[in-house]
Every structure is written in C-alpha cells, then in structure tokens.
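Thread amino acids onto this structure.
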C-alpha cells in the first residue's frame, strides 16, 4: 500500500495550518499599525444607509488581546495534540488511546457487578434473573443488529433460538464463537460437480435430504455427484460442526431455500463472518461480559433449563 501513498497530504495540511495562524497574526499586526486619515469630526468618510458613519477609532484592546490569546492557544494546541499532518503532538494523545482509557475505566467500574457471576455455569447463570437481564442488554447492544431482537436471525444470519448450530451449541463452543468470531467459507463447487444440469441435479438431491419437495429423478442423478460435497457435509449430509458445515437434512436454510438458492450456492460459494466480540480480538466485550452473554445465548435454545 505504501507504493500508492506519500506524505503529500500531511505536508499540505501542515503548511495550510501554519500559514493560517501566521497569516492571522500578521493581519492583526498590520491592521493595528495602519493609520487612517480622519476628517475633522474623527470619521473615516465611510457612510452606510445614509446615516451610519464609521468613526476613526482604534480596535478595542480587549478584542485585540482576545485575538492574540486565540492565536497562542491554537499554536499551543497544535504543539501538544495531533493537528499538523502526521505530527503526533508532544502529549502523545490519540483517539484510540482515549477510547481505550474510557473502556478500561468502564470495565473497572463494572467489575464488581460481574464478580458475583464468577465460577457460575451457563445453566446456573440462566437461573439468575440479574444475569439474564444483563445478558439481554448485551445481546441487544451487540448481537441484535444481525440476529434480530428476538434472536431468530434472518437470511444469512443464524437463528439462535432453534437449536440448530453450525459450530455446536454447547456453552464452550458458543463462548468461542463470541470471543474469537467465526469465518465460514463455502467454496464454489460447480467445476467439481459438473455441468449446469449436474448442479441442478445435486440441488434436487440436497432438497431430498431434508424431505423438501423435489424432483426424484433429478435427485437420483445428483446423489452420486454429491460425493464432491461429502468432504464437508458428510456422506449423509448431516454436516460437520468442526468445519461449520451445515446439516443439510434438518430443513434449516441459512441462505435461502429452493433449487435456485442451492444452485447459486454451489456455483458461487459463500463467505460469512461472525466478528470477534472480545476486547483482546478487537471487539468491545470483556471476558466477564462474554460469560454472561454466552449463558444468555445458550438459554435461548434451552428454554426449559433457563426457566424463561
């Protein structure tokens, strides 16, 4: 990337900023020295709206000193803080550092609140109304944007309340998903499967695995071709949670149902990402918050265990 960038804009911003401050100072100095020849009545001869006359009086000193203070403050600010291109300022202040300090302060203030949940299992946490109330807020603030406020998801975003899990629904696996994130990849498989008709036949076979309406003749032709898919989805089509490969027999369709949707998936593939939520991985949640959120998400598909 460095081959396509330079320090031009940094130099440009620095020059414009310095010239602006120095120029304002010179303007103040020049205007304070300029003498205007006045008439006998101490006016400049400028009249507006017939009766508004400009007097030949110097600028008020309070205004002049306020201008000087403003210029000095601006110069001092640019020395202490970032503002002159890539110059970082003598104080070393950054937006990222300020954000991190605020996050650390918030985590410190919240630590006593989460301390009572230390050592509790996911099932125990789901029985704690306070923990579930916190989990609900964490979910709404960090997860509902994709999975929905009811956690039922939408096309491309998994339903978290139905017990169908790509990577497993145990608390440990849910926690890993929240903490580290996931990247699911379905590679384009058209070349491995065969012609366009072969792809349609495989799509019909996939539909047959879940008992969905399908063309039985095409499904029979597609069954031997499914061997190209079995490496991830298994010979029986029940998926592989170690790879995040979906179960094709349970009639749950993350990216759409029907021949057209399956053909598009085989031809084009798909990459889905669940971003990491842990602070250590670039997210916003502490380990204590992730523990509570894990229990909340686990409880969504274990209503009996959580008593919800």
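Threaded sequence (308 positions):
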């Amino acid at each position: 990337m460095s081959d396509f960038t330079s320090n031009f804009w940094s130099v440009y911003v620095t020059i414009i900023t310095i010239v602006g401050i120095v120029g304002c100072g010179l303007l103040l100095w020049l205007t304070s020295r300029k003498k205007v020849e006045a008439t006998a009545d101490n006016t400049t001869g400028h009249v507006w709206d017939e009766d508004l006359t400009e007097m030949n009086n110097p600028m008020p000193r309070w205004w002049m000193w306020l201008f000087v203070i403003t210029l000095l403050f601006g110069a001092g600010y640019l020395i202490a803080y970032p503002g002159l291109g890539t110059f970082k300022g003598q104080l070393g202040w950054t937006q990222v550092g300020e954000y991190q300090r605020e996050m650390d302060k918030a985590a410190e203030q919240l630590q006593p609140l989460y301390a009572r949940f230390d050592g509790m299992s996911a099932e125990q946490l789901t029985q704690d109304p306070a923990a579930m109330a916190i989990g609900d807020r964490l979910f709404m603030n960090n997860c509902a944007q994709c999975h929905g406020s009811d956690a039922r998801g939408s096309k491309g975003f998994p339903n978290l309340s139905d017990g169908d899990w790509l990577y497993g629904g145990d608390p440990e696996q849910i926690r890993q998903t929240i903490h580290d994130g996931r990247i699911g990849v379905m590679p384009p498989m058209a070349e491995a499967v065969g012609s366009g008709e072969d792809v349609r036949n495989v799509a019909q076979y996939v539909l047959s695995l879940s008992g969905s309406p399908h063309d039985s003749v095409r499904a029979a032709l597609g069954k031997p071709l499914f061997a190209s898919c079995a490496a991830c989805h298994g010979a029986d089509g029940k998926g592989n949670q170690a790879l995040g490969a979906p179960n094709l027999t349970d009639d749950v369709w993350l990216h759409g149902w029907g021949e057209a949707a399956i053909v598009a998936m085989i031809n084009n593939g798909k990459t889905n990402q669940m971003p990491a939520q842990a602070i250590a991985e670039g997210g916003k949640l502490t380990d204590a918050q992730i523990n509570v959120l894990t229990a909340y998400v686990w409880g969504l598909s274990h209503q009996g265990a959580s008593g919800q």
